[in-house]
Amino acid sequence: MGAMGTVTVLLFASLAERAGTRRLELPLEEGATVGEVRDRVVAQFPQLAPAVPTLMYALDEEYAREDAPVRPGSTLALIPPVSGG
Amino acid sequence: MSVNVYIPTPFRHLVGNRASVRATGVTVRDIIEDLDRQFPGFRAQLVDSTGERARHINIYVNQVEIENLAGEATELNEGDEVAVIPALAGGAPTALTPEMVERYSRHIIMPQVGSAGQRKIIEAKVLIIGAGGLGSPVALYLALAGVGTIGIVDFDVVDRSNLQRQILHQTDDIGKPKVQSARETLLAHNPNIEVVTHETPITSDNAFEIISQYDIVVNGADNFATRYLVNDACYLLKKPLVDGSILMFDGQATTYLPGKGCYRCLYPAPPPPGMVPSCAEAGVLGAMCATIGSIQATEVLKLILEIGEPLVNRLLLYDALTLEFRIVKVRRDPNCPLCGDNPTIHELIDYEAFCGAPIPHAAAPFGG
């Protein structure tokens, strides 16, 4: 399966701090899911791995499960909880 | 003495449909007699069959009920404001005094609020979890709006490091219990309201008892264990929860209505201890508190007034560095252990064990 377009990944809050960036573009493999895109992000930024079980995903601004397919040109947001008050 | 007497709607037919009239006398009793001379039949409205003042009639001098002064013997000063207020069928005397009409005039003038809406605000009971960064602006705006009963839960004392963002507290408050400092600040802004202080950490043992006294809960907690606890307690008690959280330059806000999703639908598992830092560990831009806190206060007022579209099934993400607001659509998770189709959580649990981290208490202040 080859690359067929890109996906924009947005990192929020502590993820952005840990990765040192808030936005990245990744090539998108055909049929890739939210979880697979996330794994590519974590491969690039291993320091994000401990946060994975707590993340919420939003695909094109809508809540998405890990198994949701990602279409080319989509935006995937990785949203960790924030506890400060 | 000549004083102004506020006449509520039920009595206005007696005084030529005026909202206020002048009366003279040395004491409250004199004023009532003068009103009866000017408007025959007025006194009969205030007394029961024995000639004593009826229990459902309250008389206020400058917004203080005369039973807290010297009763009908209360002496008056030139220019005092007297109000004769009957309790309404519902119980609470919710008539707006002239002071309230003036104070809340910028609310009342809007058709979405009006005097009926302002009375709803005055009758509302709102609980705020934490008198810290978020709790401060939420409490202040709700107090200014006239929310009649504001409860505040916080075990902590004011620390100098709080003052960079927690606008309820000032330098002279350092060392004071936060709930006490909060109460003083709120009553200085609006003496018409009640501020109920709960000087304790909120725990599985007291959460039901505290939360059940209120209509709406606002979350300004500073740790995950308290956030899961308050979420679960609000769902189990069927109370709306207006949630907000901040860290560094990021903020989140959403409103949970019972049965329409909860914190666990978004974040089923708490982060491992140390993964997500607290404000004490990572810092927070003070002005962020007002951005998110003001949104929470707005949500509370919308819920009270039943206007607009609450931030339900939508999570607001605020990035102060790019000044971007994003709204992500979220939804109730049918597999949620709390509010899903086959729930496994039916009572409060041990949240310290669940989160693998203690709920901060007075011995280890986190400082919101």
TrEMBL record, chain B:
Q: Which residues form the THIF-type NAD/FAD binding fold domain?
A: 104-337
In Swiss-Prot or TrEMBL terms, this protein is called: Molybdopterin-synthase adenylyltransferase MoeB
User: To which species is this protein native?
Assistant: Tepidiforma flava
One MF term in the entry's GO annotations: nucleotidyltransferase activity
Write out the entry's keywords from A to Z.
Answer: Nucleotidyltransferase, Transferase
Q: Entry's InterPro entries?
A: Beta-grasp_dom_sf, Mopterin_synth/thiamin_S_b, ThiF/MoeB/HesA, ThiF_NAD_FAD-bd, ThiS/MoaD-like, Ubiquitin-activating_enz
One Pfam family, please name it: ThiS
Database matches in PANTHER family: ADENYLYLTRANSFERASE AND SULFURTRANSFERASE MOCS3 (PTHR10953:SF102), UBIQUITIN-ACTIVATING ENZYME E1 (PTHR10953)
